[in-house]
Structure formats: structure tokens, C-alpha cells
């Protein structure tokens, strides 16, 4: 019995991270009815951005310089053609951003030498990393998703598939395909009550994930921007007719989504190591959202916890019977069962039918 | 206030819907646009409100001027913010999964300030039905309530020019009557209204001037009262003419007066 509770507890903690991944998919799906298959790659990029800031990773100039120039070109392009800024201003802002990127990548931020306390360093690097992840998400949205606004959601889904390959290859090109050791050195909050033992890292992961989840919910349901996002999610044309800039809302959603993915990515990397293949974890979001319901935020939370527990149970009880790797399959089997009973997922929206 | 000059609009680069339409809207009037299905009434409103891009339509000729300034090609949200043009789409454009209060809040997104709450109360004063339902999801409201809500949402954007696309669509005659009364009241508060309607009789009764659109062209214009009495309008849009019955053979276009075309 103690064993079971222990397993379920750990499962829930990991499940909260999965719930966050699910949330990222759900908010994009709600807004544009597109499924973001590039979630794993966003996860890796977010984690690497944080890694660069936190661990003071330097890149050789032959990688940092092209990246800086790329950022300069992309940003100037977006500012000039999309935001209709003056050419010189756009070029100037782009150049600024590009040189900051180059500086950070080439010389490093030197946080470890400036700030000794790892927790303080974490608190500084995390927002910076998340902002960077949000900007990456926004740039990607502007370049690939925005031109498709008003078209079929299928085309956005296909674009996200292509993005997954492009981004994965880019990350491999820049950071190589070897593993980076990832140790956050957060304060030890290992919980030991009676016979139960919960490790520090999963607890941190659970806390940060649920906090991020809560912040997103508050943002969506308590602020006017959240209201605009929910309105746009329902119908882009109606939202535009009432003065909500649907294009900008879509940009915000992608930025928020990539910020959440980055949080989840940092937490997942903290369990082990970070490499360009960490993105596989992103696939775990698929059973999460399908079990919970593609368009339900609460469903993402429940789905994440269910998948986490299912994985933990399969890992603790079924794998020792000789079925190695069953842990990775179990959520999908559960998914099949759920879909048989409720095709829209557990919390998929009940369509309003007026009589 | 609004002047449309020789506007031509093409959807998907091939379907020509508006073929050189020209009209102008004066300050403080209720302009009625009537026409058969597919005549281009909705497209006209979409072009004015800047929504035409979203539907993959292009303005290939002509100009739309708001107070002398061209608003052609400006983003829908900018047109609303800068020129106070609010477009209420056809078929009750409310957000079904938001509550009625949230709907009004979402509509005031473009001009969020301290007065939103007061304005919301004002809308509830116009439509007392909505006050009782304000915590209910809009999708569960009846058709009439939804239409009132959508006009209320339009009011939240503080429009100077209100483009209404078939507000009476699918509503019972009594509710339509009430709605038109409210539209009239709105006009008296100083909002200029362009009303596109199939229900020509009711619309012309509250309007000051009217245009008849056919095949993407204006074929007739005049004071609303004149249009009501016009024999052809009576025959084709009001369903009653001098002769009680006319065979469809005679209803063909070329039988009508030449000066229309």
C-alpha cells in the first residue's frame, strides 16, 4: 500500500509537468484549431536558452555570429514588413537585438561569477530564459503561422510538423547532438514523512509547473487580455469585427505557449540531462491532451496527472514483470480506452446546441 | 460621413461581387440597403469595415472614404479604433462560450478604460433582458437576446457609424419590431446607421434613405418613403404591387425600367 501511494505521488508530480505541456497544446488548439507538433523542439530550444544563460555556455564565433545575423535579419524583416516601422528604425532595432544575442552567446552572461547563490542565479536566469523563449515563439509565429490566418487549421498543423524538423536540425547544428549535464542546484526540499520519500527535483518540478499553470489560468480568466484571447479562440472573424486584433492575439498565444513549454523543458531537463533529443518528451503531451479533451484547460491538468500516474504505475508494477519499456506505452493504451468511451476526451467541450 | 466611390470587390481573385458601387452616408441618418441574396450587401459592409481581407476578398477598384480620408486597405481593428466604424456581422456574432457580461467586456477590448462598467450598465438599460442573463453563456440565449447582445457589444465599442447586417435574420416579427425600435433610438443618440435588410418593409419604415442593390450595383436610390411607394420596390421587395399577381415571366430583369441599368 505504501508502495502504491509512493508511486502515485511521484506520478502526480511528473504528471503536473505533463499537464503544463498539455496546456501549451490546448491553448494553441483553442485559438487556431491547429495541433502544434513542434512542441518537443520548442521544449529543447527553451531549455537551451535557459542553459546558455544559467550555466554560462559559450558558443564559438562561427556559430554565434551567424545566429546574431539571423536574428538581426528576421527581426528587421518582421518589424519592417509586419509592424510597418520605418526601415531605419527596424534595421536599428534588429541590429540591437542581433548584437545582444551575439554578445550573450559569444561572451556569455557570466552569471555564475557574478552571483554565487544558485537560487538567486536561477531566479534571474529563469525570467530571462523564458522571455527569450517567448520571443522565439513569437518570431516563429510571425514567420510561419501568421500568413496562414484564416486558412484551414490543417495547414497550420502541417507547418508545425515541418517546423519540428527544421528546429531540431537547427538545434543540432548549433549545440551538437551530445548531452549537456543539467543540474540546477535548487535547495533540497526532499520530503520524508514516515515511509514516504519524495525527491527534491520532482517536487520542484511539480511546484513550478502548477505555479505556471495557475498563472496562465489567472491570465486567461481574470484579465482583459485573457478575455480577448478566449473570444478570439472562439471565432477569429467575430473577434476582429469587435476590435480585437486576432493576429496579435495569435502571436501572444504562441509566445505564452512557448514560455510554458520552456518551463516544462527546464524541469524535465533537471531530471537528467539536456540534449537535442530531449524533445521526445514533448510527445507525451499527445496522450495528455487527447485524454483530457483537446479544447479543455482543466482537461489538460487532469490528463497530465492521469498520464503521470499511469506511467508511474506501469513503471513500478508492470515493468518488473519483464515488460521493459511498457512505461512508455501505457499512456497510449489508456488513451485508446478513453477514446473508445468518450471520443472528445474526458473534458472535451460539450457543444452548445440550441433548441 | 462615409463615401464609397465606384467600388469593385473580387473574392479569391475570380468571383466578382461588387461591380462599381457608389453611395454616400450622411451624418446622423439611417441608411437602408436592400437587395436579393447574393447582391453584394454583406460584401459591401465587409469592405467598409476592413474585414474583406479575412475573407480573401480584394478591393480592385474604387475607394472608401471616411470624412474625406481613404480607409481602403486599413486593418479592421484600426478602422474601428480610428474612425469609429463598427460592423455587426450577420447571424448574431456573439461569443457562444462566454457569458453575456464577458461578451460585452470582450467587445470593449479596443478601448479599455474606467468607463467600461458604466457603459455596460447603459447597454443593460437599453436591453433589460440581458441584465437578468448576464452570468449565462451567450450560446444559451434565445435568438432575439443574442441579436440584442450583439448590438449591445457594438455599442460597447462606442461607434460613430454602425453597420448592421440583417439584424432581423431568423427573428420573430414582434422581436424584429422591438429591435428596429431600438435601432431608431440609437440613431437618435447620434449614431449613424447603415442597415442591410431583407425585411424591406420594416427597415424602410425606420430609415431616412435607401438604396437598392442588385448584382453588385446600385439600381435605385431615394428617400425611404419614396422607395416604399415605388412600384418596383413594392413588387420585388415588399411582395405587393399594383397588380395583385404577376407571373414570374414578367418579373425578369429586362422588364424593368431602363434607367436602372
Can you describe this structure?
The complex is a heterodimer of chains A (355) and B (261). In chain A, 73% of the residues lie in helices and 3% in strands. Chain A has 355 residues and is mainly alpha-helical. Chain A has a single domain, classed as ABC transporter involved in vitamin B12 uptake, BtuC (Orthogonal Bundle). In chain A, the strands form two sheets. In chain A, strands 1-4 form a two-stranded antiparallel sheet. A two-stranded antiparallel ribbon of chain A has the order 2-3. In chain A, strand 2 (191-193) and strand 3 (196-198) form a beta hairpin. In chain A, helix 1 runs antiparallel to helix 13 (297-318), helix 2 (39-55) runs antiparallel to helix 6 and helix 3 runs antiparallel to helix 4. The longest helix of chain A is centred in the N-terminal third of the chain and has 31 residues, at 2-32. Chain A is globular, with a radius of gyration of 21 Å. Chain A starts with a helix and ends in a 14-residue tail after the last helix. By secondary structure, chain B is of the alpha/beta class. Chain B has one domain (2-95, 159-260): Rossmann fold (3-Layer(aba) Sandwich), CATH 3.40.50.300. Chain B has helices at residues 41-49, 76-83, 100-107, 116-126, 128-132, 143-156, 173-188, 200-206, 224-229, 231-236; strands at 2-11, 15-25, 30-35, 57-66, 69-70, 85-88, 161-165, 192-197, 209-214, 217-223. A six-stranded mixed beta sheet of chain B has the order 6-7-8-3-9-10, with helices on both faces. Chain B has a four-stranded antiparallel beta sheet with strand order 2-1-4-5, with helices on one face. The radius of gyration of chain B is 19 Å and the shape is globular. Chain B starts with a strand and ends in a 25-residue tail after the last helix. Chain A binds chain B through residues 149-150, 224, 227-228, 230-231, 234-245, 349, 352, 354, and chain B through 49, 51, 54-56, 75-77, 80-81, 86-89, 93-98, 102-103, 105-107, 109-112, 137, 139-140, 142, 153-154, 157.
Amino acid at each position: 500500500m505504501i508502495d502504491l501511494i509512493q508511486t502515485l505521488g511521484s506520478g502526480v508530480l511528473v504528471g503536473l509537468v505533463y499537464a503544463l505541456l498539455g496546456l501549451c497544446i490546448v491553448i494553441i488548439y483553442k485559438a487556431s484549431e491547429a495541433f502544434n507538433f513542434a512542441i518537443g523542439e520548442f521544449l529543447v530550444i527553451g531549455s537551451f536558452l535557459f542553459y546558455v544563460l544559467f550555466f554560462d555556455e559559450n558558443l564559438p564565433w562561427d556559430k554565434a555570429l551567424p545566429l546574431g545575423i539571423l536574428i538581426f535579419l528576421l527581426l528587421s524583416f518582421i518589424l519592417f514588413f509586419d509592424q510597418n516601422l520605418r526601415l531605419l528604425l527596424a534595421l536599428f532595432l534588429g541590429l540591437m537585438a542581433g548584437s545582444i544575442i551575439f554578445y550573450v552567446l559569444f561572451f556569455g552572461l557570466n552569471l555564475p561569477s557574478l552571483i554565487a547563490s544558485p537560487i538567486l542565479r536561477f531566479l534571474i536566469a529563469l525570467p530571462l530564459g523564458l522571455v527569450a523563449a517567448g520571443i522565439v515563439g513569437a518570431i516563429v509565429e510571425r514567420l510561419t503561422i501568421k500568413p496562414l490566418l484564416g486558412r484551414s487549421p490543417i495547414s497550420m498543423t502541417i507547418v508545425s510538423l515541418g517546423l519540428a524538423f527544421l528546429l531540431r536540425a537547427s538545434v543540432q547544428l548549433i549545440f551538437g547532438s551530445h548531452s549537456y549535464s543539467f543540474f540546477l542546484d535548487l535547495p533540497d526540499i526532499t520530503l520524508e514523512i514516515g515511509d514516504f520519500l519524495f525527491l527534491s527535483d520532482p517536487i520542484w518540478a511539480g511546484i513550478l509547473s502548477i505555479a505556471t499553470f495557475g498563472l496562465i489560468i489567472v491570465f486567461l480568466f481574470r484579465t482583459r487580455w485573457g478575455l480577448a484571447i478566449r473570444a478570439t479562440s472562439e471565432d477569429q472573424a467575430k473577434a476582429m469585427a469587435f476590435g480585437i486584433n486576432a493576429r496579435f492575439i495569435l502571436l501572444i498565444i504562441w509566445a505564452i505557449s512557448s514560455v510554458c513549454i520552456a518551463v516544462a523543458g527546464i524541469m524535465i531537463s533537471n531530471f537528467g540531462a539536456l540534449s537535442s533529443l530531449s524533445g521526445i518528451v514533448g510527445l507525451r503531451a499527445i496522450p495528455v491532451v487527447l485524454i483530457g479533451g483537446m479544447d479543455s484547460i482543466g482537461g489538460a491538468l487532469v490528463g497530465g496527472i492521469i498520464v503521470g500516474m499511469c506511467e508511474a504505475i506501469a513503471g513500478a508494477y508492470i515493468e518488473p514483470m519483464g515488460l521493459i519499456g511498457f512505461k512508455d506505452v501505457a499512456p497510449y493504451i489508456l488513451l485508446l480506452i478513453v477514446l473508445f468511451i468518450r471520443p472528445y476526451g474526458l473534458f472535451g467541450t460539450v457543444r452548445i446546441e440550441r433548441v | 460621413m462615409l463615401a464609397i466611390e465606384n467600388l469593385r470587390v473580387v473574392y479569391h481573385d475570380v468571383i466578382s461581387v461588387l461591380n462599381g458601387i457608389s453611395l454616400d452616408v450622411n451624418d446622423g441618418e439611417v441608411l437602408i440597403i436592400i437587395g436579393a441574396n447574393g447582391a453584394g450587401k454583406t460584401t459591401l459592409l465587409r469592405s467598409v469595415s476592413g474585414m474583406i481581407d479575412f475573407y480573401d476578398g480584394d478591393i480592385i477598384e474604387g475607394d472608401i472614404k471616411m470624412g474625406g480620408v481613404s480607409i481602403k486597405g486599413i486593418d479592421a481593428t484600426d478602422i474601428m479604433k480610428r474612425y469609429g466604424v463598427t460592423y455587426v456581422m450577420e447571424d448574431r456574432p456573439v461569443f457562444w462560450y462566454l457569458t453575456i457580461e464577458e461578451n460585452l467586456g470582450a467587445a470593449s477590448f479596443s478601448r479599455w478604460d474606467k468607463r467600461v462598467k458604466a457603459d455596460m450598465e447603459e447597454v443593460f438599460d437599453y436591453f433589460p433582458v440581458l441584465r437578468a442573463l448576464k452570468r449565462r453563456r451567450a450560446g444559451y440565449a434565445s435568438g432575439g437576446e443574442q441579436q440584442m447582445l450583439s448590438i449591445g457589444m457594438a455599442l460597447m465599442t462606442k461607434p460613430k457609424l454602425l453597420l448592421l447586417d440583417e439584424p432581423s435574420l431568423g427573428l420573430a416579427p414582434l422581436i424584429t419590431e422591438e429591435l428596429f425600435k431600438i435601432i431608431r433610438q440609437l440613431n437618435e443618440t447620434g449614431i449613424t446607421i447603415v442597415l442591410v435588410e431583407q425585411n424591406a418593409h420594416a427597415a424602410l419604415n425606420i430609415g431616412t434613405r435607401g438604396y437598392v442593390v442588385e448584382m453588385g450595383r446600385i439600381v435605385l436610390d431615394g428617400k425611404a418613403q419614396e422607395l416604399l411607394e415605388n412600384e418596383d420596390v413594392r413588387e420585388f421587395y415588399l411582395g405587393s404591387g399594383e397588380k395583385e399577381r404577376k407571373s414570374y415571366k414578367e418579373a425578369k430583369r429586362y422588364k424593368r425600367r431602363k434607367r436602372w441599368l
